[in-house]
Amino acid sequence: MKKFLKWIMDENPLFVLCLGMCPALAVTTTFENGYLMGLSVLIVLLFSNIVVSLISKVIDNHIRIPAYIMIIATFVTILEIIINTYVEPLSKTLGIYLPLIVVNCIILGRALSYASNNKVVPSIIDAFKIGLGYTFALSLIGLVRELLGNNTITIMDRISNLTGYIMKYEIFPSNSVIPNQLFLSPAGAFLTMGLLLGIINALRREDIK
Amino acid sequence: MEFGFDNGPHLKDKDHTSKIMSRLLMALTPIIIFAVYKNGLLPYLEGYTNLYGMLKPLIIILLGVLTSITVEIIYFRFILNKKDNLIEEVKRSYALFPGLFVALTLPINTPLWLVVLGSLIATLIGKLLFGGLGHNIFNPALVGCLFVIASYGALIGARGGYLNPMEIDTIAGVTPLTNLSNINYVGTWSNIVKPFGSLRDFLLGFIPGSLGETSKILILLSFIYLAVTKVIKWVVPVCYVSVVFVMTFIIGTMNNIDIFYPLFHILSGGLLFGAVFMATDPITSPTTRIGQIIFGLGLGLLTVIFRFLSPYPEGVLTSILTMNMLVVIIDKIGAKAKFKKGYLNISLIVLLICIITFSIYIGYNLKSNTNKVDDRFNIIEIREENNKVIYEVTQKGFKGLIKANITIANDKIIDVDITSQSETYWMEMENQNYINRLINKQDDLENVDVVSGATISSNALKAMVENVLADYEVRK
Question: Using an 8 Å Cβ cutoff, are B402 and B424 in contact?
């Protein structure tokens, strides 16, 4: 477990590289939104890494950025159509941030810096490492924000017509704790993000020592 | 040779620090005593509250101070691992002030756990996480206060908000500034100042407000003391207050409101308290003289903009926090302007243009608001609750607006509940049971006799009922 955590924290896009901050601040109002956004990024990253690593030799160096964007955009569009068809509530909550995965710098960054110079299998591993790290970070922020801001933890709500379950728990007894609405607003997102960034980097520094 | 770069304050010898601290405390002592007297002792003596209510302001202040000192001790001891000279270290970083100021900027009805939370946020996030004294960009106390007000404002409001136990019974509702924003910022002496007494009460501090901010006269005295002993920079508060005065004077004149309007704006809310104690914080305000002038002008401009154009009627807290962000730039301009007069002129001209344009813009817009009120009848909200329709309406009466909730059931008005009015001859109408007569004869309103001596007011009420019925017919 510790090894796994270290593996995804080593080059965590959010907490270490500080990439992909926009969806991290915007959609993470619940735990569910957090991990589903992370998983969407993971899926796109996986496929784009595979394709890029396969055809990187064919693409001329001058036009590689537009070409990679096209590849990423294809997968994002496919994902968006699938989500729109099968889980409509989810596409409503994720909103504009779902198509915006196209310009998410994590995916383009990995395509440019890793997948274009490596073979398929390492690229897949890299996609999982980065994608899981991002999912972990987003769900952590979502968890903290939802717990403090709404006193609940949502595991399955938007996707419930796909899975058939609704899993939404109230953590503290509702009359003893007054949730802090600030954490559901953008200001609370920045606050949570900054504090988590600080804590995790302090822990990492100790670990490296 | 190597130059050292460090954040202010640079004078760090022991004697100076403790002197600043004791002078600040000395200036704050009368304000604290007045807060305890006004919010605790006075209601207790008049029989409005019990012993706990009497001690509550004192408890809030002590709790705030204790929390911030405890947080600093824990932070220094366990996170920075400083073992020796712990007390000295905490003393040197002015540990008690964030908590004290948080307590003084909070309303009396704040629950105690919120005071602790606000003080904790102020000290930890506002100050220590930035690197301790001298490194924080925002005023710590205001960070804590904003956190509490922004996230639990409704909770505090439900417990009575800014009103102490005595004021809940004697003054209807709200703070002067909220009252002003409720009547769309234009009105006369009788509905702006009169509900809270006179301007003398504003000066002495017997109006609703947070713990420390009400007594303007004590704040002015401590400002003079602090300015003479050079603990604070006098430039910032003077610029700040004069800009607010000028802007509200222009706005008031454009709307034919007397000279009391700018005075009201200066004497209500936390303006003076913020200007004297928050905007002059040595760490989060500019160090150059020219920078301080720009800082003060910007603060005044922002405060007026926030007061008139945003839904929050206070504006001081947010404008100080906003200007805190710009201190670095302002100081750069200030340092350059010492040698090149152009910098100073350009920034001053830009600020002056902003000040004049914004005051004219706000003044003009308020005018169009008053024109709308001159249509006399206005529907604020229509609610439907179990087969009843409730109209929340206003009608212009003899003086100011009459606000009422009118309930309609089965196509008939069953209740007219006047929520606020400022009519001069209201008593005559109440004596004659005018409203009940209106309700009873609502099908034949033309034959309801007006109340002699209150013709305009009773005609206004009649028109209000007519308008509501007409609107209800149309909607049906």
Answer: no
From its phi and psi, is residue B161 left (phi > 0), alpha (psi between -120 and 50) or beta?
left
Domain hosting A129: range is 14-204
- CA-nearest of B259, B269, B337, B276 to B303 is B269
pLDDT band at B78 (very low <50, low <70, confident <90, very high): confident
Q: Please, what is the end-to-end C-alpha distance for chain A in angstroms?
A: 20
Partners of residue B152 in chain A, C-beta under 8 Å: 178, 180
Mark out the alpha helices in A16-119 (DSSP H runs).
21-26, 31-55, 64-86, 88-94, 105-113
Distances in whole angstroms, Cα of residue B444 to Cα of each of A193, B14, B55, B395, B449: 65, 83, 57, 20, 11
Across the interface, do B151 and A180 touch by the CB < 8 Å criterion?
A: yes
Determine contact, residues A145/A29, Cβ cutoff 8 Å: yes
In terms of residues, how long is chain B? Answer: 476
A199 to chain B: nearest residue by CA? B129
Determine whether the interchain pair B151/A181 forms a contact, defined as Cβ–Cβ distance below 8 Å.
Answer: yes
Please state, in angstroms and rounded to a whole number, the distance separating the CA atoms of residues B143 and B280: 16
- C-alpha span between A194 and B125 (Å, rounded): 10
Question: By C-alpha distance, which of B371, B243, B254 is closest to B307?
Answer: B243
Closest residue, chain A, to B121 (C-alpha): A191
Number of domains in chain A: 1
Tell me the pLDDT tens digit for each residue of B89-144.
777 788 888 999 999 999 888 889 999 999 999 999 989 988 888 888 899 999 99
Per-residue DSSP letter, A158: T
- Chain A environment of B125 (Cβ under 8 Å): 191, 195
Residue A132 lies in a domain: yes
The verdict on a CB contact (< 8 Å) between A178 and B150 is no
Contact between B151 and A198 using a beta-carbon 8 Å cutoff: no
Output B365-368 pairs: Cβ under 8 A, ≥24 positions apart. B366/B184, B366/B185, B366/B186, B366/B251, B366/B254, B366/B255, B366/B308, B367/B254, B367/B255
**A21-25, A162-166, B371-375, B430-434: least confident range:** B371-375
Query: For A85-115, how does the pLDDT look when each residue is reduced to its tens digit (9 = 90+)?
Result: 888 888 888 888 888 888 888 889 888 888 8
Distance CA A93, CA A39 (A): 15
Which candidate, B38, B32, B28, places its Cα nearest to that of B205? Answer: B38
Residue A131 resides in a domain: yes
- Contact between residue B272 and residue B213 where contact means Cβ atoms under 8 Å apart: yes
Band of the pLDDT at B370, cuts 50, 70, 90?
very low
CA distance B151 to chain A (A): 5
B151 touches chain A (CB under 8 A): yes
Classify B151 as helix, strand or coil.
Answer: helix
Cβ distance of A180 and B125 shorter than 8 Å: no
CB B105 within 8 A of CB B270: yes
Q: Residue A32's closest CA among A136, A139, A131, A132?
A: A139
Alpha helix positions (H), B112-234: 112-124, 140-158, 165-170, 176-182, 189-192, 199-204, 216-228
- Residue A65 sits at the chain B interface (C-beta within 8 Å): no
Closest listed residue to residue B256, CA positions, set B355, B189, B331: B189
Q: Is residue A1 part of a domain?
A: no
Rounded alpha-carbon distances, angstroms, from residue B317 to B96, B124, B460 = 20, 19, 40
Between chains, do B155 and A178 touch, taking CB under 8 Å as contact?
A: yes
Question: What global pTM score does this model have?
Answer: 0.76
DSSP, collapsed to helix, strand or coil, labels residue B448 as coil
- A3 part of a folded domain: no
